[in-house]
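Bug report (template v2)

What were you trying to do?
Predict the complex of my protein with magnesium ion.

What happened?
Run completed; filing so the output is reviewed.

Input:
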Amino acid sequence: MPHENQTLGEFIIENQAAFSYSTGELSRLINSIRLAAKVVNHEVNKAGLVDILGNAGSENIQGEDQKKLDVFANEAFIKALSNREIVCGIASEENEDFISISGKSNTNTNHYVLLIDPLDGSSNIDVNVSVGTIFSIYRRVTPIGTPVTLSDFLQPGHRQVASGYVIYGSSTMLVYTTGHGVNGFTLNPAIGTFYLSHPQIQFPKNGAIYSVNEGNYVHFPQGVKNYIKYCQQEVEDRPYTSRYIGSLVSDIHRNMIKGGIYLYPQTAVSPQGKLRLLYECNPMAFIIEQAGGLATNGQQRILDIEPTALHQRTPFYAGSQKMVADLMQFLG
Ligand code: AHM
Ligand code: MG
């Protein structure tokens, strides 16, 4: 049970027994994410002070410019998790291929692989708007002690054992689930400790916020256009309020607390939408469902999609149950 002033460290220890396989491995993993999150938080917070803004000069595999902080965050998380053989493999949105962590003379007997988007919403960095880290954890499917293979990473989202995000916002929070609800921890920057601030977060069943990049409106499928018009109608509890930050973590976090729906549809230009299934949609969908919300690609539950490639994209519609159900009527 959460108690007053409970820290994330205490919470992890006290809840270890609730994991299906409680060898302490998963606890160590979440602890390492907690540490790396603090390191990245420190860097994100002083971004305006040091010459760390701007492009690092390299492109990620999607051909997008990488910011220096993306590179920093990527390295910080990979270092925290590979140094101590906390996981047996890591796939990152910033790296083309996954990394196998075999340990000294192949002694790594760890069960878990990590998929991570180290700094999501990076176009917001230069303008002091919230960004986030998203992570997803699976048990490997190949034998322990052997190098990991692609099949360890290409698992449907419903097999996640844990997922979460860090939001570097007006305050820094770590929110995660191990399949027993969703808990949120806020960093006290003065002492560098995360405290349980949002126990058992519940996605409101209905809401009044819709979040979508309406600049792409003309390219949206007709059903989505019709739904947006419905959101704007002056009837009953509508029009809804439009709120779009352009940082997935922040947009979902707000909607999960206030009630709302997030839409990133496919368009003619991007037939699979923009968001990545493994690094962004699956981990967020696990959290959303654990909080009582819904996440779909318009046809199927996000967590049921069988992935075929590490960097695959998917349309993404997620939020309050009633709102997603209404949207589905329009999508047909
Ligand atoms: P990124 O991984 O390059 O940072 O892009 C992902 C971000 C999400 O955080 C956000 O929801 C979306 O891209 C916004 O896209 P757009 O600018 O097209 O609205
Ligand atoms: Mg991203």
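What did the reviewer find?
The longest helix spans residues 25-45. DSSP finds eight helices and 15 strands in the chain.
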